[in-house]
Amino acid sequence: MNTVGQLIKDAKKIVIKIGSNVLSDETGVVSKDRMHSIVEQINTLIEAGKQVVIVSSGAGSCGVGAIKKWHRRADINYKQALCAIGQVELMMAYKEYFSDYGHHVGQILLTSEDFADPNRALHIRNTLSTLLDEDVIPIINENDSVCVDEIRIGDNDTLSARTATLWSADLLIILSDIDGLFDKNPKIHSDAKLIECVESAERIRNEVTMDGQSSFGTGGMQCKINAAIKVNAYGIPLVLLNGKKPDIIRDAVAGTAKGTAFLSKL
Ligand code: GLU
């Protein structure tokens, strides 16, 4: 078994971040099939005795899918309104799919202020524990409709890293639309190689910047490396997998699919 598979197998408390690009199809509309498949794989992890906290993006894209307008509006109030609409759609879909496996879901919407305030952070932790002890799946997103720059986390890679450290998870899995971290941009270089194991996320971050690009082909690789630095500092490894591939989590555990493992030295 490869490192990625072993990390998932060994972890008891797992945060899984699901990106908008994973949930959306080519037109930006949420792919219910993919979402259903991810829910099914998460259920397999739960049946194997693991506790899972989901950090899900997709409020914005679900909002566009539901109301079919405003997607070109740049004004913040329309963007936040779309998230308010889409968050309901997102949770309705999770509720429906998890109920197929007998699970309830609980929604937690957070801002950076909630993590910064020790009292609120304690309540987040207590709510997570209570939900999980009662076999309810917590699903977290940023509270996009109330966020102004001052209290904004901004991206769900960071939100998932903060959640993993707050909950003292054993592992953070980020499901993205890329197979993992490559030694060069795979969209430009056909000989780009997947890096299966990163011993120092900090060093890799410097190399990515030196490459002259903000990322290896996706908008968010820097955010993922930063998330790895954050969780690795708390002894939590991070696994990056391509959530667009069917059965990716199951295949990673079986050792038949690859991704990138960011290891913690602690
Ligand atoms: N919170 C945003 C949403 O649900 C997504 C943020 C992100 O993808 O990083 O639409």
Description:
By secondary structure, this protein is α/β, with parallel strands linked by helices. It has 11 helices and 10 strands. It has helices spanning 3-10, 20-23, 32-47, 59-67, 76-99, 112-116, 118-133, 156-167, 201-210, 221-232, 248-254, and strands at 13-18, 51-56, 104-110, 136-142, 171-176, 181-182, 194-195, 197-198, 238-242, 260-262. Helix 8 packs parallel to helix 10. The longest helix has 24 residues, at 76-99. The model is unreliable at 210-219 (pLDDT under 50). The structure holds glutamic acid (GLU).
Question: Which stretches of 5+ consecutive residues score pLDDT under 50?
Answer: 210-219
Order of helices and strands: HEHHEHHEHHEHEEEEHHEHE
Number of helices: 11
Helix content: 40-55%
Strand content: 15-25%
Small molecules bound: glutamic acid
Q: Mind telling me the CATH superfamily name?
A: Acetylglutamate kinase-like
Q: At the first level of CATH, what is the class?
A: Alpha Beta
The number of domains is 1
Q: Strand tally, please? A: 10
Question: According to CATH, what is the topology?
Answer: Carbamate kinase
* Helix-strand category: alpha/beta
Question: What is the global morphology?
Answer: globular
The average pLDDT value, as a whole number, equals 91
